[in-house]
Design goal:
The protein has 517 residues and is α+β, with helices and mostly antiparallel strands. Helices cover 54% and strands 17% of the residues. Bound molecules: FE2/S2 (inorganic) cluster.
Length: 517
Amino acid sequence: MAAGRWWFLALWRSGPGTLALYGAIAVHGVLALWLLYDRRTLRMPIWEATQYAIGLLLPALLVVHVVGTRIAWWRFGADDPYPRIVLALWMQAPAFGARQALTLALAWLHAGIGVHYWLRFRPWYPRAAPWLFAVALLLPTLALLGFVNAGRDVAELARTPGWSDAMLRAANAPGPVEAARLLAIRRGFLQSYLIALILVLVARGVRHLVERRRSIRVTYSNGRIAIAPGGFTILDASRLAGIPHASVCGGRGRCSTCRVRIASGLGDLPPASDAERRVLARVGAAPDVRLACQTRPTRAVSVEPLLAPSVAPAEAFGTDTRQGREQELAVLFADLRGFTRMAENKLPYDVVFFLNRYFEAVGTAITRAGGVTNQFTGDGVMALFGIESGPAVGSRQALAAARAMVDGVAALSADLAADLGLPLRIGIGIHTGPAVVGRMGWGDSFYLTAVGDTVHVAARLEQATKDYDAELVVSEAVARHATLDLSHFPAHNLTVHNRAGQVPVRVIDHVANLPGV
Ligand code: FES
């Protein structure tokens, strides 16, 4: 520990290190007080309330440590080697030691919540989260174990007569006079902090009295109405009225999940800040869309929240597909051959068990290839590829998914061979073309789907796998987008009901024969 201390002192007690560390602490503290003032309602999700409460408590807990080490060193030249600090925390004042351990745990929790809610809408985060969580648990646990170990070492050393006195003398530990002055510094800080907190709360109260006189009315698309004091954001108004409203980042203008379409009153709203505009541009929002957490109406507005209150963090920054847009993508349909006949002889429980295994196998194949599973109906599956990455990548992903789906179904078939009688066979159709993509549904049941001719054609290609007794039928458009030579597979022209012209397709009897994708 002493060897490590040399390195961190070299960093934190250097000029730039001091500026960075104490500058960051000061800015963090001032911003926290500003946020406490700025937010109009203290109703917030439990995670946010926990982070706030710990954050406000931490300065009061940390000051004891900072004054006892850094300030004592700076003002009185008192060195703070680990033997001196651990002797004080472990033996002379164990209550201080317990408080120091609690401070460490709370500071770590505060930081952990902050980092988690900052990163959780990054696409890579769900994969990294278990590892980060393991580190987040291990690091403070090992640190505290290190402290306990050091405490035992120091207790052992302190049994040697004269060791403690000699060590304290060598460290130039503060005497009674210096200790009294350090205590006064600590008290001064605590009183100032308390006064700052009270001032913020008083300022909130005064503002509330002023703003209460001019209330604003927010009408929601479901007919509910929130009346909030002027100065409230739309999200504040929702929270005040107890109207569920998505806010994955806690109203910090980072996630875009609180966005609303302004049905009326758009012209009366204050213009969006640059930061708000950047977030809205990132999700391709229409001009009548605003972030509820950043918009403070001055007159009555009608709004339509665009994401369900239960929106998952992963959907933050998802393109604003609720509004619908036309784009080129690959659509895949798959169906299990002879399933209806097979299900006739099975108990309902067995059918559900089997279908769930089947959906797990094909769903995993689709997701791993980069697609979005869209519909599970009976034994049929629809999946979309290339929503974000475009038709070329989407076509290749769909073909890779087809290969993995066939493998997955073969593995399932082998697994359940004793129950099935006949091996399972799947038929897959893929077409790439323009479709309208959007989040559709009602209430909490919104999901991303596509409609249009491309979907219709893909479904027809899947049906054609029965006619050709093949595992896969793909349109020429898929091969073209995927830049794949399928000329050695039989070509056909398919007629699609209610559609002019024929669709040129390639019939692939076994997906394993596909060239690499
Ligand atoms: S709640 Fe995250 S941007 Fe508004």
